[in-house]
Amino acid sequence: MKIFRNFEDAKIIRNPVVTTGSFDGVHIGHKTILNRLKMLADKHNGESVLITFDPHPRKVLYPETTGKDLKLINSQEEKLELLEKAGLNNVIIIEFTLGFSKVTSEQFVRDFLSGILNAKVVVAGFNHHFGFNKEGNYKQLWEWQEKYNFEAEEIPEQEVEHETVSSTKIRNAISEGYIQRANAYLDHYYIIMGKPEIFLHKNSASLPILVKILITEEFKLLPSPGIYAVSVESGLVFSKGMAIIHTRPEEKAEVLVNVFENIDFTASQRVTLYFHKKIHGSVNLADDKAILKINVAKEEISELIY
Question: Of 120, 165, 192, 295, which alpha carbon lies 20 to 30 A from 183's?
Answer without folding.
Answer: 295
